[in-house]
Model the fold of this input.
Amino acid sequence: MKATDIVASAVCGVLYGAVGYMIYLLAPITTPGIGIVRFWPSVIIPAVFAVLFGPLVGGLGASIGIFVSDLLIHGDPLLSLSAGVTSNFIGFYLLGYISRRRIDWTKTVAVASIILLSAFPALEYILLTYVSLNAVILFIGLSIASYAIMVAVGYLWPQWRSYGIASIVGLGVGSTIIGFVVWAYSQIFVLPEAVGGGFQLPLYVALIWLIWTFATEIPFLIILGPPILRVCFQAFPSLNPLKEWGESAGERENIKPEDAVKP
Done:
């Protein structure tokens, strides 16, 4: 890693941990009825760093930040290393990696639509059976709204297509790790009382944690990411990974060349 990457990772980690901790103090919200997984809009911070400085910076910064905030909030380092650090590193590494790649937009949207429609019935059943009707409404509303925004942004501003897809993939993988690793942890250890507690919880709670994490965090990535990155690209053009695509990217996506290089 270059010196700038090390510094960027440290700055990302400090910002992520500090902002996340402050948000939790102001709004100590966790998964309804189960607890443990927190409401976490600060995910936008490592997402921005992952796009600007690359996947390794985003992943390391997120790992540092979540570990620090976990220690401050629930004080269980083993749980943080097992679920928080792992999910954040992999999730934001993927986000940074995919956001810097050219994506076949048509095929990706088609596949995403099929997956979304296929998964809805099972997820709705789980939420309705084990949580509440309000949880189903919240999940469906946030998921559809976020998906619609991603498609609209990708159609109107093609330069953000890769970022939108990267956000969904990265957060989807990270949410899955959180859900199932926290569940596995609860089979061996007692979960921290500070965020809800629990021991040997049933398997379905892993899916609820997965759904909660994804549904409550994807709006912040999709809505806040492009405008924040736009400002960063304008202030520091050298950090814009899209500029490397050049004219060929514009031709490949059937968009104007200037749209491919200017956020």
